[in-house]
Amino acid sequence: MGQYAVIGLGRFGESVARSLMAMGHEVLAIDISEEKIQEIADFVTEAVRADAKNEEFLRSMDMAGFDAVVVSMAQDIEANILVTMQLKGLGAKYIVAKAQSQLHGEVLERIGADKIIHPEWDMGERIAHLLTSSRSIMDYIELSPHYSIFEFLSPQGFHGQSLGQLDLRAKYSISVLAVKRGEEIFIAPGGDFTFYEGDIIIAIGPKDIEGTLSQIG
Amino acid sequence: MGQYAVIGLGRFGESVARSLMAMGHEVLAIDISEEKIQEIADFVTEAVRADAKNEEFLRSMDMAGFDAVVVSMAQDIEANILVTMQLKGLGAKYIVAKAQSQLHGEVLERIGADKIIHPEWDMGERIAHLLTSSRSIMDYIELSPHYSIFEFLSPQGFHGQSLGQLDLRAKYSISVLAVKRGEEIFIAPGGDFTFYEGDIIIAIGPKDIEGTLSQIG
Ligand SMILES: Nc1ncnc2c1ncn2[C@@H]1O[C@H](COP(=O)(O)OP(=O)(O)OP(=O)(O)O)[C@@H](O)[C@H]1O
Ligand SMILES: Nc1ncnc2c1ncn2[C@@H]1O[C@H](COP(=O)(O)OP(=O)(O)OP(=O)(O)O)[C@@H](O)[C@H]1O
Hints:
Two copies of one chain form a homodimer. Chain A has 217 residues and is an alpha/beta fold. Helix content of chain A is 36%, strand content 26%. In chain A, the strands form two sheets. In chain A, strands 3-2-1-4-5-6 form a six-stranded parallel beta sheet, with helices on both faces. In chain A, strand 4, helix 4 (77-89) and strand 5 form a beta-alpha-beta unit. The first copy, chain A, is elongated. The N and C termini of chain A lie far apart (50 Å). The mean pLDDT of chain A is 90. The complex binds adenosine-5'-triphosphate (2 copies). Residues 7-13, 30-33, 36, 51-53, 73-76, 79, 98 of chain A line the site of one adenosine-5'-triphosphate. One adenosine-5'-triphosphate (ATP) binds at residues 7-13, 30-33, 36, 51-53, 73-76, 79, 98 of chain A.
């Protein structure tokens, strides 16, 4: 069981705090707003109303004792940077900081935040990718500039065919990793695996997989 | 080349608009704030200052002509719902709507939004997972209640060993999908692939993979 501190209970901070609690860890939640503290008090180990910019306050908490501290207030960039800076000075083991912009992210990197996240920005990029790919691509995660993991609906041209017959790796450099069929999941299917309509395929492929899929039909 | 409309240029909306432009598509950006419109005007096909709640305004734009419309203003839940509702009435082909909370998301689903996203909430869950897994897990994507795709640093116990020798699938149901070594990526490595220190492994495995990895050492 781990111990975590979450500073700032916006949509992101609240989600981190609740998820950590749901996994059985201890969470100290801090926010400047009394209302937010009231809302979350019953769901976390401890909830404290305070201005995290107040150096006395941060010193009074044993920040070095937590497995990680999450700085999840971002609109006030000055507060976010000062708090991250002070946590570093107090010996916090691991600091996750939410950034408001790419530039803000670079400052956080320089002052030693261990993980910097841009929830809205990253999600914006993913949505732009999902919108512009043919609707058949349901999700993707970038592996390298040229390859990604894609999750897509099995194209018409696959139905009734086996993985061996389709020879996807040799023809299109598509490597099928797993297939979801309803609740069942087939990991690393063999050459004799036959596709049905409605199968969801998870595969590694080149970035232009969409063009390939529409060719196969 | 597609045509997209983005209503609301917060961190998320701006990211969607800029990413779509970078991929060579056309983007109409709408925001109530003149300042936001000025900032983005040079980077999108067209930028219009307007209150999206104004029914006359939405009717005057050919919303049905866009491949997708993104409703990326979320703090004003009423505006977000009314705009989504009206877009549906105007025949928008595909609506992506940002939700402020789980409940708001349910309302959007009921009124017919095609894709509902919770950027901060989803990222909060991911961060909570990454924080509580041993630092060796760098990223993960859930496939089913029991399996996920994990990205992790090759454990000490793998170095100098081949995939065949380690026999990971039989022993631990871990299926190595790809290995990243610096800029290079090896897709679906064969049994003779030997691991080096610093390799990053992408594999499908059971949710308790962390316990397994620390056993291997
Ligand atoms: N100095 C501070 N000390 C403690 N809490 C603070 C401070 N400043 C802001 N907060 C709190 O941090 C939370 C998040 O604030 P902020 O608006 O900066 O984040 P945000 O990036 O918009 O959040 P999200 O997008 O996750 O909803 C709010 O609940 C706010 O009360
Ligand atoms: N009725 C409206 N018509 C057009 N634009 C609007 C309207 N209401 C708000 N906006 C704009 O939408 C943008 C995003 O607003 P909002 O604060 O709701 O989103 P947010 O969820 O906090 O954004 P993010 O987290 O992506 O930064 C702002 O730029 C705001 O000016």
